[in-house]
Structures are given as structure tokens and as C-alpha cells.
Amino acid sequence: MQNAPHDPQVLPDNLPVPEEDGAADHLTGVKCADVALPATDGTRVNLSGLPGRTVVYAYPRTGVPGREMPAGWDAIPGARGCTPQSCAFRDHFAELTALGVTHVHGLSTQGTAYQREAAERLHLPFSLLSDEKLVFANAMRLPMFEVEGMTLMKRLALVIDNGVIAKVFYPVFPPDRNAAEVIAWLSSK
After folding, report:
1. 86 near 124, Cβ under 8 Å?
2. Over 39-97, what HEC string results?
3. Taking Cα atoms as reference points, which of 113, 106, 108 lies closest to residue 151?
4. 2, 133 in Cβ contact below 8 A?
5. Strand partners, 53
6. CA-to-CA distance for 98 and 113, rounded, in angstroms?
7. Is the backbone peptide bond immediately before 171 cis, with ω within 30 degrees of 0?
8. 7 pLDDT band (50/70/90 cuts)?
9. In which region does residue 66 sit, left (phi positive, over 0), alpha (psi from -120 to 50) or beta (all else)?
10. What is the pLDDT of residue 4?
11. Quick one: average pLDDT of 85-111?
12. Under 8 Å CB-to-CB from 74, ≥6 apart: which residues?
């Protein structure tokens, strides 16, 4: 029997849970790095200069239906689930804006052309930001990992108020519940 093609929208059972390793502890209260990142809507976004409340979720990489992910992807704690995480932020977008969020962005090290395909296919009402050269990730010392020669961000979410990180969600698991966790925190404020 042949393996079914990878379906990025389905989270398999028994995924390994990422451990709290302290790699994001330094981020709360920190001003975002002054870096303009290319966005899938053709603009450049500098998180340090955005007014109001911004939610950014960082993820390793989105999959493409029918294409294989890196070998052993499902065995890497926290790697699987980028598409479900993006879809959850899409599905909760109206709730986030009703809670005063003025900007929502996804963030990965994938190139803008690759991200644009995902943003269009998933019908995201917000743009994805590319940190392909790791300028923002390195400046902020974001948690990262390597697989098959790629340096990827570990999954996290940031609530940013006027360029300063107010809340960090890390590690994020399961990824499809991250948007609801952000909403619960925002609702409690």
C-alpha cells in the first residue's frame, strides 16, 4: 500500500509536544528590531514601527498539498501544523480585530513567492512576512532549529503593542489552537 500524499491541513495524532526550553523568555518587554520585512501583499512591514496592537505568529514552513515535507518532519517537536495555525488565525481574524488588534501577520523564513502561494490558497485576510535572510530572527534571537540545511523558526506567537512585545506564546502546541489562546489572553486584558 502506498503512503497517502501529505495533507498540510490535517494534524496527525501523537505528534511530539515541544518542550519549554526558555528560548523565548527574553522577548517580553523588548522593542522589535527595526527591520522591514517583505510581505505577501507587496509591501514591506517593520514591526517596530506599527502603531497599535499587532499579533504575529511565527512558524517553521507551510506545506503544499501533495508535496512531501522534509524527512522526519512529524518527529520534530512543534514542526508540524503551520497550515492549521494559519487557518486558525484566518478563522479568528474578525475576533482579533474586534479585540483591538490592528495588524495580524504570519512570519517564516520562506521566500515571499512561496508564502504568496500559501496566502492565496488559504484565503488569508492578512499578509505573511518573509525573514528569508534571518535578519529579524537573528536580531531578536528567536528560537530556531535546522533541518535538511534549512534554518527555520520554532513556532511562537507575539502580541506587540506599538512595537514592544507585550506577550509571548511559546512553545505553541497544538498549533491549531494558538489563535484561540491569543484571543483568550486578549479577552482577559
Report:
1. yes
2. ECCCCEEEHHHCCCEEEEEECCCCCCCCCCCCCCHHHCCCCCCHHHHHHHHHHCHHHHH
3. 108
4. no
5. 101, 161
6. 30
7. yes
8. low
9. left
10. 42
11. 97
12. 12, 15, 80
Nearest CA-CA partner of 39 in 101, 147, 131, 146: 131
User: What 3-state DSSP class applies to 112?
Assistant: helix
| 161, three cell numbers | 503593542
Q: What are the phi and psi torsion angles at 25 (to 5°)?
A: -60, -30
Q: Residue 15's pLDDT is what? A: 87
Three-point CA angle 4, 9, 10, nearest 5°: 60
Distances in Å between the Cα of 5 and the Cα atoms of 66, 80, 112, 119 are: 5, 15, 24, 21
The three cell numbers of residue 139 are 536580531
- Residues listed for the chain: 189
The tens digit of pLDDT for each residue in 140-186 reads 999 999 999 999 999 999 999 999 999 999 999 999 999 999 999 99
- What integer best gives the mean pLDDT of the chain? 92
Q: How far is CA 188 from CA 5, 54, 156, 158, 165, in A?
A: 41, 17, 20, 16, 17
**How do residues 12-50 score in pLDDT, each as one tens digit?**
677 889 999 999 999 999 999 999 999 999 999 999 999
In sequence order, what are the beta bridge partners of 84? none
